[in-house]
Structures are given as structure tokens and as C-alpha cells.
Amino acid sequence: MTPLGHRRLILTRHAKSAWDDPALEDHDRPLNDRGRRSARELGDWMASRGYEPEEVLCSSSRRTQETWEKVAGAPLEVRPILRIEPGLYQASPEKMLQVLRTATQPTVMILGHNPGIAEFAAQLCARPPLDPDFRRYPTCATLVVDFQVDDWKDVRPGEGSVMDFVRLDGRD
């Protein structure tokens, strides 16, 4: 639970997807084995730090939904509201902010895609993490950022305080 006047965003790029079927549409690509392992590790990492979303805004792509399924398999205490948001598929930072502003719970997780998610993460932070891969936002990268606002509608770029940043999926 986050206190009044405080909102927390957990911003996650989907885990590593499979490329073994060239005929498959991008939207329909599943996770590969490494991606499934990384997403499970992300769920464990989140639970160990108390980063528990009350609402999940997930792109409609197969790989983002599978990432959430693996994260949700961790021992999280909260079972969040899950909203599949087609507008998050390949979304621009502006679209991601628009979707975030519709959130109803104090702690929200967004699962999305590059390049939009990397740009969105960079825009949100007052001071970005020092991690050299932050601006690249590799697969399964996750930023935890807090805002001192009462409502998601009041979130503005450049006002987020970075609480944590993790990369679990290697260098791609």
C-alpha cells in the first residue's frame, strides 16, 4: 500500500521473446526459455522488495501477457487488477502516459515495448539511474519510480523519484 499523496509505477519491458517462427506476426511472438526464466526471477525480485502492483496495465501482445503470467507466479501478496491495453502495443511515451493517467490504484505496473518504454522511463525520472543500460532498456528491465501526487492524472515527466532499476534478461 502506498500512502496518500504517493503513487508508485513499476515499468517493465517484456522478457526475451522467441524468434524461431519467422511467419509469426510480431504481436503473437511468445517468450523464449530465457525470457520465461527472467520473468519468474522478476516476480521473485519484486516480491522480495515489496514491489507489489495493485493494478497491471499490460500491452495486448503475447510476450507482454506471458511476462505478466510468469511475474504473477511469484509469491506476491496482492492479486492486482489486470487490464489488457491494446494501446500499449508499440506505444509512444505520450501514449504510455495517457494510459497511465487512467490508472485507478496507487501502485501500478505497466508492461510494454521498446523503443517507447525506454523513452518513457527516461522522461519520467528527475534523475535517471546510473546503470549504463538504462537508456537502452533491455528485455525484462524494470524501473520502480515514485511520484508525490494524489492521482495518476497529475503525473508529469521529470518528476519521478527512482527507487530501483533492475535488468534480468542479459544484454539484449
TrEMBL record:
<protein>
    <submittedName>
        <fullName>Phosphoglycerate mutase</fullName>
    </submittedName>
</protein>
<dbReference type="InterPro" id="IPR013078">
    <property type="entry name" value="His_Pase_superF_clade-1"/>
</dbReference>
<dbReference type="InterPro" id="IPR029033">
    <property type="entry name" value="His_PPase_superfam"/>
</dbReference>
<dbReference type="Pfam" id="PF00300">
    <property type="entry name" value="His_Phos_1"/>
</dbReference>
